[in-house]
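haha ok so turns out i had the wrong file open the whole time. this is the CORRECT one, sorry everyone. sequence first:
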Amino acid sequence: MKLLAGKQYWDALPCTPDFVAMFIPGENFYAAAIERDPQLFEDAIANRVLIVTPTTLIALAKAIAIGWRQEKIAENARQIGELGRELFRRLSTMGDHVGRLGAGLESAVKHYNNFVASLESRVLPQGRRFSELDLDLTTQKLPELKPVETQIRALRGDGDAGAEIIPLMPGERLQPGE
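then structure:
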């Protein structure tokens, strides 16, 4: 145990392990060692060495696997958070563009309608007087123009601002309509 602790793997590796495992191939060997030195376990832990037997090695391996799985879940959650922030930023930019486009369309419709109103009230009546003169130019009739009455749909506010976010467990999926 002292020789293994003396190797100081935690100083030599870039990813520092919390401890090093020392495998003893039988429970009876460990029991005999503890009988001879009752402080063996405490000394090993103080030197960052974990003494494992076949039984405890399996438990240690499972605990490490669960830890890695939890680390992967935490990393995925961090990435989801980053993706969410980026998506929100992009939605905000897109919302600005849509708002300006809507204002431009509203302005264009307003200007078109003002133009048509002016044309109908000031120019077309004057042009229709040509047909009263019975000229060859006046075989065609002047068209009747109508204003554009389509409304621009306004963006909704934060109607879902109070919506609750419910986290899903790993492997869990939403059912349609949820």
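The chain has five helices and two strands.
again sry for the mixup
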